[in-house]
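Severity: low
Component: inverse-folding endpoint
Summary: output formatting inconsistent between runs
Steps to reproduce: submit the following structure tokens with default settings.
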């Protein structure tokens, strides 16, 4: 079996021209954009939009990075759209807080909630999971996660980001149902990733999060994009960048055990920029807290999401009514 390839490109800030160059180089190093996408393809860009926090925080995939990937795909002739199912709030609110809604609209790139679950069986255990039909109906999925620490799973790089394709409050349910056993929960994450099967992952580690991630940690510069088709290889290289042992990462351990990834993982071919002089030696790992959610936590989470949805619908109706009232032709 061949060794998996991971592309590393340096990018020290979110200036659009530099991001564009770094993203273009990612595709070039990995065989060209036409290896992954054809003109006319509907391409889901799946960022990490976990909660509505601004771009000054490293909570979410940076909007400038998402925008430049979308722009590159549009220029190629594909039809990208941005989608997620955030654990807190909804994708429209997360996009708005990032001030990404206007630029995406100008680029004619839709934003879609990953809802409308299609019940499928994943993994060897045939676990029944509701995966968003919006994600499953895309011709191609490109995974755009954020490199972050994680208080329950130590880190989150590539694999866990596909958990956002599980619609609605299933994420809270699975924390309740499988969270008492970290290995079982992480195997589910690997099974979901394998089922959704992204064509490519590019990790946003230009600015990363350490400490109390994945929401409230510290924003700090790393200056990397990490890309590849093999998520286990990508995660292994992410570990190298922040100077931790891959064996200590529960998701990565479970993914290896479940056979996710391909090739000889101990012989990863790293192409692009040199990692040796740019390893982070003081990445702060979190103090771990329990993975499992209580039934009460799940119920509160579902109720809160219902209230957020009701408020969102109310806001849209008010806005639509105001637009109609302000229309000069309304009184005719």
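Observed output (run 2 of 3):
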């Amino acid at each position: 079996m061949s060794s998996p390839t991971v592309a590393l490109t340096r990018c020290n800030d979110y200036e659009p021209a530099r991001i564009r160059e770094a993203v273009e180089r990612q595709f070039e190093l990995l065989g060209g954009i036409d290896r992954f996408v054809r003109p006319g393809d509907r391409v889901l860009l799946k960022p990490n939009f976990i909660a509505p926090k601004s771009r000054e925080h490293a909570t979410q995939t940076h909007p400038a990075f998402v925008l430049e990937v979308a722009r590159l795909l549009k220029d190629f002739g594909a039809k990208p759209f941005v989608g997620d199912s955030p654990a807190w709030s909804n994708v429209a609110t997360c996009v708005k807080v990032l001030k990404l809604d206007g630029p995406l609209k100008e680029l004619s790139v839709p934003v879609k909630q990953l809802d409308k679950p299609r019940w499928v069986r994943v993994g060897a255990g045939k676990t029944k999971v509701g995966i968003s039909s919006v994600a499953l109906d895309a011709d191609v999925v490109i995974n755009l996660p954020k490199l972050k620490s994680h208080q329950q799973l130590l880190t989150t790089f590539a694999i866990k980001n596909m958990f956002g394709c599980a619609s609605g409050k299933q994420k809270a349910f699975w924390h309740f149902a499988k969270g008492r056993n970290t290995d079982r929960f992480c195997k589910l994450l690997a099974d979901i990733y394998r089922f959704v099967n992204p064509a490519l992952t590019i990790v946003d580690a230009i600015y990363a999060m350490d400490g109390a991630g994945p929401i409230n940690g510290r924003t700090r510069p790393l200056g990397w994009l990490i890309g590849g088709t093999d998520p286990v290889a990508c995660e292994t290289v992410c570990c190298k960048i922040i100077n931790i042992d891959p064996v200590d990462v529960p998701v990565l351990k479970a993914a290896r055990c479940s056979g996710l990834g391909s090739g000889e993982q101990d012989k990863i071919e790293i192409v692009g920029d040199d990692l040796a002089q740019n390893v982070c030696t003081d990445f702060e790992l979190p103090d771990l807290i329990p993975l499992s959610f209580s039934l009460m936590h799940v119920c509160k989470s579902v109720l809160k999401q219902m209230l957020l949805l009701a408020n969102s619908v109310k806001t849209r109706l008010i806005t639509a009514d105001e637009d109609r009232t302000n229309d000069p032709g309304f009184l005719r």
